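Might you be able to check the backbone structure tokens below? Thank you kindly.
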Amino acid sequence: LLDQALVQEGKVDLKPFITGKIDVADLVNDGLDTLINHNDTAVKILVHT
């Protein structure tokens, strides 16, 4: 895919789209709450496993 190639080649930086990082244990309590109640600022939350 073209968009995937652009990311792999370093032409598109996805880091600005990650608006939070949480542990998988906090996904339900913190992650979903953030996406539901702060969706004006939360774009994508990276879940660590």
